Amino acid sequence: MRLGSVKELEKRRKSLRKARDGVRRRIIVCAGTGCVAGGSLDIYAALVEQSRESGLDVEVELEACGGKRGKTGPDYMSASGCHGFCQVGPLVHITPDDILYCHVKTADVPKIVDETLKKGKVIEKLLYKDPTDDERKQGREDITFYNRQQRVALESCGVIDPESLDDYLAHGGYQALVKSLTEMQPDDVIDAVEKSGLRGRGGGGFPAGRKWRSCLAAPGDVRYVICNGDEGDPGAFMDRSIMEGDPFKVVEGMTIGAYALRSSSGYIYVRHEYPLAVQRLEKAIAIARGAGLLGEDILGTGFSFDIKINRGGGAFVCGESSALMRSVAGYMGEPRPKYIHSTEKGLFDQPTVLNNVETWVCVPPIIDRGAAWFAAMGTEKSKGTKAFSLVGKVNNTGLVEVPMGISLREIIFDIGGGILDGREFKAVQTGGPSGGCLPADRLDLPVDFDSLTEAGSMMGSGGMIVMDDRNCMVDVADYFIKFLIQESCGKCVPCREGLVQMHAILERIIQGEGRPDDIGKLEHLADAVEAASLCALGKTAVNPVRSTLKFFRDEYEAHIKDKRCPAGVCKALITYRINDNCNGCTLCVKACPVGAITGKKKQKHVLDTDKCTRCGACEAICNQNAISVE
Amino acid sequence: MQLTIDDKQVTAEQGQTLLEVARAHDIPIPTLCYHESLEARGSCRLCLVEIRKPKWPGWKRLVASCVYPAEEGLEVRTATEEIVGIRKTLIDLLLARCPKNPEIVELARAYGIEQTSYAVLDATRQCILCGQCVRVCEDIIGASAIGMYGRGAGKKVGPAYGKAAETCIGCGACAFVCPTRCIQVIDEGLTRRIPRWNVEFELVPCRICGKPVSTRKHIDFVRGRVSAGPEVLETCSDCLRAYYGAKVAAEGHM
Q1: pLDDT tens across A459-482, in order?
Q2: Where is the domain boundary, B39, B63, B79?
Q3: What are phi and psi of A432, to 5 degrees?
Q4: pLDDT digits (tens, 9 = 90+) for B126-183
Q5: Which segments of chain A have a pLDDT < 50?
Q6: What is the pLDDT of residues B24-55, one digit of tens each?
Q7: Residue partners of A180: CB distance under 8 A and separation at least 6
Q8: Residues in chain A within 8 Å Cβ distance of B117
């Protein structure tokens, strides 16, 4: 249905809100990538089918929830984007009762229908079990993973149906665009973004308003807006979840940006490895176009803007803005020197504004609720909130959004529920391959752009990998260098050749062949690669090595001087031994693939260290804690 | 505009790069991926220079002079201790990449490096991936027979899919610009081979002296772009010179 004017849109919104208010319960099945992999689409289909079979009044379209019904309205069942709490998915959330079911299986559906949907009873065993006190918690309000978060970018993610414009409208979607088009001049929009203090969420943290203003000031008739959805940091999935869970907001944010910049053409660059994001964005764009919210004469205001999707071929470097623009233009994804900014000479050599997904979705709420509202959150220089994907050795893995300035400790220990298996925290890696590892004594550091950079790491796009005492920091540094060797575009000498040589040095340290001057050599190379590389990928590629050398130098020295890996990771430097805890169960004897363990039942076993390949199978299977790693 | 390079006051035109300005004033800056006929690529990083701006005291930045545009009042230093140190490291890295390439070995020697401090992973490599061959083939010749493929440490230059370069015309411009001379153009009788691009061509003999002029494909390629017949295109440069020399001598004009 085409919405030919603002009046028509508001009329539509009004009727959808009426329908929404008539809904008795809302049953939301997470259809983020993680939960879909866990079978959530089958769970959703089964829920709809079985509840209808059992006579419940169920609707799957918001529009259908309106009309004449009895006092109790229908149950509205929909799939949604990522709820964030991927650790315990597939998730089913029921509102307004705030019941969150975790690890749901299709086999649980009959019980959910019978007990919860029909009788209103909560199924205890499907509730979240808090690892800190082993108690079951009913809903988001009770779970610290959720109740300590403050969601702006992720506000509707996991709440609304990402494939329904109706649901988006009912949740206040396109209010900001209407406000921009009817009450604000393009310059007012830029003023608002500038005053909000919004900084680019993609890594650099450049003030978005300033970027927009310099693009507008650049000479040229054609301007482009680009949404960077080429999130490539290992372990990061903020932008993916937003694109999958709230695609209309990405489109709306870009449309507002285009209005401010007087642009008529936009691109969303998404990784090919994000098929669900591509699919949902394509659908959202098609629906928005059909509704008159994209294309010619948007809402009858005379403003025209359209968006194309470009799929990236899986190159990390294409997340770098100039490489991304070359890729969109059809060239090899290589960065160019940015002595002339892309705001002046960007895509097709025209003035271009590129922001990442999370930045774009902050724009509608800023316009809607005002710059002051946004600027009131966060710290003096880092306003608003930031989404992180919290992964690694932490109890609650998932997607979290917190106000800037909150401490690492609060994120990892309160929201994240502490370290897995009660082990000791060792480091947190922030900012992806361009970031660094921060140790325990930096846990109280406020999480904002400048504090993290000052400490030798960076905010990056928001990856946060938690490591415990079983992670070797030399190994971690080598992992990121290897990643970057593969992902460097290979254009400039320092990044292409320097990283290979840093890897060679790290590799020999890991193999127990480290030389006394290797640390010095690493530092020398790090200086040259950082100073001489062409783009930010190369300039920051040394951060994992630099930060681990700064905070975990003793670990490097233990590898080089004592030929010892304190974390028990580097195979060449560790020995497995059987200790006195051994009760002679023979489990490890059977598990050892090379027959290095011998022993009879109920007698302490013997491990032949010469035969041992240090695969760790014995340690993994032993339930007596009888295998020690030295 | 006026700027200083190594404390020397120099004049520059709008649009000139720092490297162009420096070379115009005989200030040496080493380069490997730069060629005056090609669009600068800024990839070898040897031409790094330090820039400062009087309006921003204390600020400095290292930039690739082959792509950095000249600016009024800029203070440029081409050989500070830091820059020479970085250049040395870069050359050392290139030597580890191509330990047997005479051009790189000679460059390293000039910087006092006899042997690389880094690991040699493949001693047979000769190419430093500067991309001059690719640029000349695409931007000047217009054949686009070769390109860069792969990325990171595995990046290579070559024809598509490693097969024979179908659109190669055998002109040899790639070999001409190659700074490490790692592209061989081998002429034997009336056959030209460029093994690196897996191609072989028929050479056209000069219609006067019989010495090879160029490849048949190259001559056909040029014929499609200029209005000249075989009397020009299939005559070697020596005979052309002799022919026109005699013509001018006899007729007073060409």
Answers
A1: 888 889 999 999 999 999 999 999
A2: B79
A3: 70, -155
A4: 999 999 999 999 999 999 999 999 888 889 999 998 899 999 999 999 999 999 999 9
A5: none
A6: 999 999 999 999 999 999 999 999 999 999 99
A7: A189, A256, A259, A260, A367
A8: 521
Question: Mean of the pLDDT values across residues B72-96?
Answer: 97
Tokens representing residue A29 in the block = 């099945």
Token output for A129: 């079990």
Q: Note the maximum CA span of chain B.
A: 69
Query: How wide is the angle at C-alpha A73 spanned by C-alphas A72 and A79, nearest 5°?
Result: 135
Q: Which amino acid is at A148?
A: R
Q: Which fold has domain A165-375?
A: Rossmann fold (3.40.50)
- CA-based torsion, A137, A160, A205, A498: positive or negative: positive
Which among B42, B68, B131 has CB closest to A534?
B42
Structure tokens at B81: 């201790």
- DSSP assignment letter at A130: P
Sequence-distant (≥ 6) Cβ neighbours of residue A215 within 8 angstroms? A223, A261, A343, A344, A351, A352, A353
| E runs forming strands in A433-571 | 436-439, 463-468
Say whether pLDDT at B85 is over 60: yes
A474-561: CATH, from 1.20.1440.230, 1.25.40.20, 1.10.760.10, 3.40.50.300? 1.20.1440.230
Contact A165, A173 (CB under 8 A): yes
* Predicted ipTM > 0.95: no
Q: Which of B61, B71, B91, B118 is most worth mutating to test chain A (most A CB atoms within 10 A of its CB)? A: B118
- Asked if A13 and A169 touch (Cβ cutoff 8 Å), the reply is yes
Q: Do B67 and A339 touch (CB under 8 A)?
A: yes
Amino acid B38: pLDDT: 95
Rounded to whole angstroms, the Cα distance separating A199 from B23 reads 41
Superfamily of domain covering A16-143: Glutaredoxin (3.40.30.10)
Residues of B in contact with A534 (CB under 8 A): 42-43, 45, 64
Are A374 and A197 spatial neighbours (Cβ–Cβ below 8 Å)?
Answer: yes
CB A574 within 8 A of CB A614: yes
Helix, strand or coil for residue B129?
coil
Asked if the C-beta of B45 comes within 8 angstroms of chain A's C-beta atoms, the answer is yes
Residues of A at the B interface (Cβ-Cβ below 8 Å)?
315, 317, 332, 336-337, 339-340, 484-494, 496-501, 504, 521, 524-525, 527-528, 531-534
Closest to A274 in 3D by CA, of A79, A546, A496, A33: A33
Considering only the beta carbons, identify the residue of B85, B118, B152 that sits closest to A486. B152
Report the Cα–Cα distance between both ends of chain A, in Å, rounded: 68
Question: Is there a domain that residue B238 lies in?
Answer: yes
**CATH number, domain with residue B71:** 3.10.20.740
Cβ within 8 Å, pair A490-B129: yes
pLDDT of residue B162: 85
Q: How far is it, in rounded angstroms, from Cα A9 to Cα A435?
A: 44
**A352-356 and A224-229 beta bridge pairing:** parallel
* Neighbouring C-alpha atoms within 13 Å toward the C-beta of B62: 24
- Nearest residue in chain A measured CA to CA from B148: A332
Q: Which of A14, A44, A16 is nearest to A32 (CA)?
A: A44
User: B45 to chain A: nearest residue by CA?
Assistant: A532
pLDDT given at position A338: 83
Out of A339, A489, A498, the one facing B93 most closely (by C-beta) is A498
| pLDDT reported for residue A69 | 60
For residue A235 the two structure tokens come to: 């372990």
pLDDT score of A547: 94
Q: What is the mean pLDDT of residues B94-111?
A: 97
What are the tokens at B243? 């022919």
| Same domain (yes/no): B238, B143 | yes
The answer to whether the CB of A323 falls within 8 A of the CB of A489 is yes
